[in-house]
TrEMBL record:
Any one GO molecular-function label of the UniProt entry: protein serine/threonine kinase activity
Pfam families: Pkinase
Listed Low complexity bias regions: 305-318, 414-468
Domain Protein kinase: 8-280
Protein name per its UniProtKB record: non-specific serine/threonine protein kinase
Domain of life: Bacteria
Keyword field: ATP-binding, Kinase, Membrane, Nucleotide-binding, Transferase, Transmembrane, Transmembrane helix
Assigned EC number: 2.7.11.1
Transmembrane residue ranges: 491-517
Region spans: Disordered: 304-491
InterPro entries attached to this UniProt entry: Kinase-like_dom_sf, NEK_Ser/Thr_kinase, Prot_kinase_dom, Ser/Thr_kinase_AS
């Protein structure tokens, strides 16, 4: 068992989240006057010990202390009460009432979706809690089923919203520069995803997602990566669930409007849900059905949403601290190496990593009118931009056919001198915009090829656009072949070339023959040849004569 301050003892972990671990704990002594609930020795409580990463951030510690009064003031039947805040060395902890029962996330997983009536009534209670906190100037910003605890009061499950203020603590300028944003993509409002100013409308959006999940068992937007989910929050409409009664769907749809100014206030949401619930039940009277069908008129947009401190136009409720009440002897007040009375005055003293001058420290807090304390864009903005950039690279872009390698017939290229392949041109830069871009229609054009040269630099990247099927690339006309050169004779006579050759050969042979006859001893050879042939003929006739004589002699 580990002590937390001098008043509490951690017993066993109940669960672990992104911002810390929740423990079952017991009270050792009655807490000091600064605690909202002093408690009794032996009482069981729940203590959320914030992650070291948060606890060691001076901005977070300061905010933790400054928000003490707001968090401790927040009391409502549907809000888990924060009893005390403990700062001790590098430890930050929230002491809460222990809620005996599962959280809504676990309950949904184990029991499946709610009936429409039950979903409406449960969400109405969440809306009550939100309305109470918004009235106090506190926006939850991390509404999700895991932050709704279901207190088992014997007869029914009583929903209680927890983790107020944690998202704001975790959204420290120092942390957001280095770490992932603390939050849950499936429940994030479009304006939060884009790093735009946030108001209480983000909680109404969260309530809409939660209601959708109660009805269907899963949130409306999911994806393989956080960025994919965020993109859907920004660009996609939730899929209509046919089993959800029309009036209830109207409520869901209004809460999930992309434009925060079109979402109802938490008060109106609670009223609307309580009007819808009886009208969609099996025992609904005609009047109840009519009232439910007219629910749209109850969902008027919030005329004065509560701004989230640190975003433009926001008043920071944590700036107003109740005076005094601190005791140096109380461990929840004492910071290492300080010894001063007021927690906010001792904060930037020695012993805290990143601690600095108190005056300077208060300057880094986000204040009304902007995000002066934050340097550089929100990490989600960077991630979203990166995702957009990736998409932009895969957009269908019109390409000059003369530059499109897919449209060329293969041909060999002579490597330039040095034998290196030609270098690719660097891609044109994208417009650096964070805001949502107006979709632009891609119109395939087919001007004459010579004139078609879309300047790539001017091409505005498009979001999720219909990519027209690629037309088969028009092949370039083959170059006209030069006509083969033929004879100068304009009249084409078949075989003339061959005849001319033959005549030339005959003439040449005749000349050669005449020269040989006249200039060589051919003639005398022929005369001699005649004698030779006659000699042979004589020889043959004498032989035949002799043979015939032989035959005649033997016969006589
Ligand atoms: N007051 C409480 N009483 C009883 N159990 C609690 C209480 N608060 C939280 N728990 C339990 O501790 C678990 C973890 O709580 P935690 O708020 O850290 O989780 P999370 O909401 O998922 O995380 P995070 O909000 O930091 O992302 C809860 O799911 C719940 O079961």
């Amino acid at each position: 068992m580990r002590p937390v301050g001098s008043k509490y003892l951690l017993e066993e972990p109940l669960g672990r989240g992104a911002t810390g671990t929740v423990w079952r704990a017991s009270q050792r002594e009655t807490a000091g006057a600064e605690a909202a609930v002093p408690g009794q020795p032996g009482e069981t409580v729940a203590i959320k010990v914030l992650k070291e990463e948060l606890a060691s951030d001076a901005d977070v510690v300061m905010r933790f202390l400054r928000e003490r009064s707001v968090l401790l003031m927040l009391t409502h039947p549907n809000i888990v009460r924060t009893r005390d805040l403990v700062v001790e060395g590098d430890l930050l902890a929230l002491v809460m009432d222990l809620v005996d029962g599962p959280d809504l996330h676990r309950y949904l997983r184990e029991n499946g979706p709610f009936t429409p009536v039950a979903a409406a009534l449960l969400t109405a209670q969440i809306a009550d809690a939100l309305a109470a906190s918004h009235a106090q100037g506190v926006v939850h910003r991390d509404l999700k089923p895991a932050n709704v605890l279901l207190k088992d009061d014997g007869e029914q499950l009583h929903p209680m919203l927890t983790d107020f203020g944690i998202a704001r603590l975790a959204d420290s300028p120092g942390l957001t520069r280095t770490a992932e944003f603390v939050g849950t993509p499936a429940y994030v409002a479009p304006e939060s995803a884009e790093g735009r100013p946030q108001t209480s409308a983000v909680d109404v959006y969260g309530a809409g997602i939660l209601l959708y999940e109660l009805l269907t068992g899963r949130p409306p937007f999911s994806g393989a990566t956080s960025l994919e989910v965020l993109q859907k929050h920004l660009n996609e409409e939730p899929r209509r669930i046919t089993t959800v009664p029309e009036p209830l769907w109207t409520v869901v749809e209004r809460c999930l409007r992309k434009d925060p100014d079109q979402r109802p206030s938490a008060v109106n949401l609670a009223t609307a849900l309580r009007t819808v619930a009886p009208g969609i039940g099996v025992h609904a009277t005609p009047a109840q059905v009519d009232a439910a069908l007219g629910v749209a008129s109850l969902l008027a947009p919030d005329p004065a949403p509560t701004a989230v401190p640190g975003t433009p136009g926001a008043a920071d409720p944590t700036q107003v601290l109740p005076a005094g009440g601190s005791s140096a002897a109380d461990p929840t007040q004492v910071l290492p190496g300080t010894g001063a009375d007021a927690p906010t005055s001792v904060l930037p003293g020695a012993g805290l990593p990143g601690s600095h001058d108190p005056a300077a420290a208060t300057n880094v807090m986000p204040t009304t009118g902007g995000q002066e304390g934050r340097q550089g864009p929100h990490p989600w903005q960077n991630q979203l931009q990166a995702a957009r950039d990736r998409n932009e690279q895969t957009q269908v872009q019109p390409v000059d056919p003369s530059l499109d390698p897919l449209r060329h017939r293969p041909h060999r290229q002579q490597p330039p001198q040095g034998g290196r392949p030609p270098q690719r041109q660097a891609p044109a830069p994208y417009p650096q915009q964070y805001g949502r871009q107006q979709p632009q229609q891609y119109r395939p054009q087919s001007p004459p090829r010579q004139q078609y040269a879309p300047p790539r630099q001017q091409y505005a990247p498009q979001r999720q656009q219909y990519a027209p099927p690629r037309q088969p690339a028009p092949r370039p006309e083959p170059e006209a072949r030069a006509p083969r050169r033929r004879s100068a004779n304009p009249i084409h006579i078949p075989g003339l070339g061959c005849l001319k050759g033959c005549v030339v050969v005959i003439v040449v042979l005749l000349i050669i023959g005449w020269l040989v006859w006249d200039l060589t001893p051919l003639q005398s050879w022929i005369h001699q040849g005649e004698g030779y042939w006659s000699e042979i003929g004589n020889g043959i006739s004498s032989v035949s004569h002799w043979i015939s004589n032989l035959g005649g002699g033997s016969g006589s």
